[in-house]
């Protein structure tokens, strides 16, 4: 797995390169100090992943990303500081596969951060290789006693990880106000970045999108779970907590889906979108148990077909749809 590192800081290039070289089956193929140099070097490179700094002189991260996406299929992961969160959200919307938050204290990089860094690189690189191979579309396991889409939808829950921000913006911006049900979203994203992401979705849509607050009365809006919190629904209110991470993440999709299933029963529709790992499968099992309806994004339109795949293989998904079809379905059920 070959990684191309682009960062204007020689110190950060060294830190990132050293970390990568210690990871199994990872090699740093080259480094560049700015976007212009990166584009020149990429003419003779074929890395599996480009790690791209957000803020750089000469040609910044966003402009470099646009040019890379125009010319190459190589996936790009952004290297971002918390101060660059708005630009990072824009990069994800422009096609970056994911982002890694730069460690604030280089001397005390946590093992968890390194594991997450490696997991993101591995999954994005693996997905890019799979895209070049033809696959039969994934089909649903045969189910007994077919569950029908609720005639009266009471709430919608959505879970996403890698590739989720761009997908979520696409489906949320097409919704028309007013909503007749609440929509709850868990997107795997660190604290601070979810605030900017909620603001971005709100700007792009005619419906109200906000970062959820603890003990908030539930209205017919779109609620995004804040980073580093789990989101639950109790007595018509949103309750946030910092209980243990699930699947190594907080917020967790499973946490939301399980509580929503108990509250909304057969009036709940759950969507699992692109993302790595298996978060959401157990939650969808609970949704099905309480009579709700589960929809998974298909392989072809997923950036990483991990979370949808696990849910489908668990036998709890009732429908597999393209991202465009998910947007159409969502519009129909919430208006």
From TrEMBL:
<keyword id="KW-0145">Chemotaxis</keyword>
<feature type="modified residue" description="4-aspartylphosphate">
    <location>
        <position position="53"/>
    </location>
</feature>
<dbReference type="InterPro" id="IPR011006">
    <property type="entry name" value="CheY-like_superfamily"/>
</dbReference>
<dbReference type="GO" id="GO:0008984">
    <property type="term" value="F:protein-glutamate methylesterase activity"/>
</dbReference>
<dbReference type="InterPro" id="IPR001789">
    <property type="entry name" value="Sig_transdc_resp-reg_receiver"/>
</dbReference>
<dbReference type="Pfam" id="PF00072">
    <property type="entry name" value="Response_reg"/>
</dbReference>
<keyword id="KW-0378">Hydrolase</keyword>
<feature type="domain" description="CheB-type methylesterase">
    <location>
        <begin position="149"/>
        <end position="335"/>
    </location>
</feature>
<dbReference type="GO" id="GO:0005737">
    <property type="term" value="C:cytoplasm"/>
</dbReference>
<feature type="active site">
    <location>
        <position position="188"/>
    </location>
</feature>
<dbReference type="InterPro" id="IPR008248">
    <property type="entry name" value="CheB-like"/>
</dbReference>
<keyword id="KW-0963">Cytoplasm</keyword>
<keyword id="KW-0597">Phosphoprotein</keyword>
<dbReference type="GO" id="GO:0050568">
    <property type="term" value="F:protein-glutamine glutaminase activity"/>
</dbReference>
<dbReference type="InterPro" id="IPR000673">
    <property type="entry name" value="Sig_transdc_resp-reg_Me-estase"/>
</dbReference>
<feature type="active site">
    <location>
        <position position="161"/>
    </location>
</feature>
<dbReference type="GO" id="GO:0000156">
    <property type="term" value="F:phosphorelay response regulator activity"/>
</dbReference>
<feature type="domain" description="Response regulatory">
    <location>
        <begin position="2"/>
        <end position="117"/>
    </location>
</feature>
<comment type="function">
    <text>Involved in chemotaxis. Part of a chemotaxis signal transduction system that modulates chemotaxis in response to various stimuli. Catalyzes the demethylation of specific methylglutamate residues introduced into the chemoreceptors (methyl-accepting chemotaxis proteins or MCP) by CheR. Also mediates the irreversible deamidation of specific glutamine residues to glutamic acid.</text>
</comment>
<dbReference type="GO" id="GO:0006935">
    <property type="term" value="P:chemotaxis"/>
</dbReference>
<protein>
    <recommendedName>
        <fullName>Protein-glutamate methylesterase/protein-glutamine glutaminase</fullName>
        <ecNumber>3.1.1.61</ecNumber>
        <ecNumber>3.5.1.44</ecNumber>
    </recommendedName>
</protein>
<dbReference type="InterPro" id="IPR035909">
    <property type="entry name" value="CheB_C"/>
</dbReference>
<dbReference type="Pfam" id="PF01339">
    <property type="entry name" value="CheB_methylest"/>
</dbReference>
<feature type="active site">
    <location>
        <position position="279"/>
    </location>
</feature>
<comment type="similarity">
    <text>Belongs to the CheB family.</text>
</comment>
């Amino acid at each position: 797995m070959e990684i191309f590192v682009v960062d204007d800081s020689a110190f950060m290039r060294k830190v990132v390169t050293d970390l990568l070289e210690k990871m199994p089956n990872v090699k740093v193929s080259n480094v560049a100090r700015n976007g212009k140099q990166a584009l020149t070097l990429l003419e003779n490179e074929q890395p599996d992943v480009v790690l791209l700094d957000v803020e750089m002189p000469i040609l910044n991260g966003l402009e470099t990303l646009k040019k890379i996406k125009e010319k190459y299929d190589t996936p790009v992961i952004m290297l971002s500081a918390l101060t660059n969160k708005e630009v990072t959200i824009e990069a994800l919307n422009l096609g970056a596969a994911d982002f890694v938050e730069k460690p604030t204290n280089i001397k005390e990089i946590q093992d968890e951060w390194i594991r997450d860094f490696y997991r993101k690189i591995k999954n994005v690189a693996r997905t890019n290789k799979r895209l070049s191979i033809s696959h039969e579309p994934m089909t649903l396991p045969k189910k007994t006693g077919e569950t029908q889409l609720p005639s009266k939808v009471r709430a919608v829950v959505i879970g996403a990880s890698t590739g989720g921000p761009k997908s979520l913006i696409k489906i949320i911006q097409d919704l028309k106000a007013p909503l007749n049900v609440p929509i709850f979203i868990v997107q795997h994203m660190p604290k601070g970045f979810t605030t900017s992401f909620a603001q971005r979705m709100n700007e792009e849509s005619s419906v109200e999108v906000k970062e959820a607050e603890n003990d908030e009365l539930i209205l017919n809006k779109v609620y995004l779970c804040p980073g580093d919190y789990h989101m639950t629904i109790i007595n018509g209110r949103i309750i946030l907590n910092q209980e243990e991470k699930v699947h190594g993440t907080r917020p967790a999709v499973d946490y939301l889906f399980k509580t929503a299933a108990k509250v909304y029963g057969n009036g709940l529709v759950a969507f699992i979108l692109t993302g790595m790992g298996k978060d959401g499968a157990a939650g969808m099992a609970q949704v099905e148990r309480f009579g709700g309806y589960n929809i998974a994004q298909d392989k072809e339109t997923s950036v990483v077909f991990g979370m949808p795949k696990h849910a489908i293989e668990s036998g709890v998904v009732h429908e597999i749809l393209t991202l465009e079809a998910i947007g159409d379905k969502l519009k129909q059920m919430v208006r």
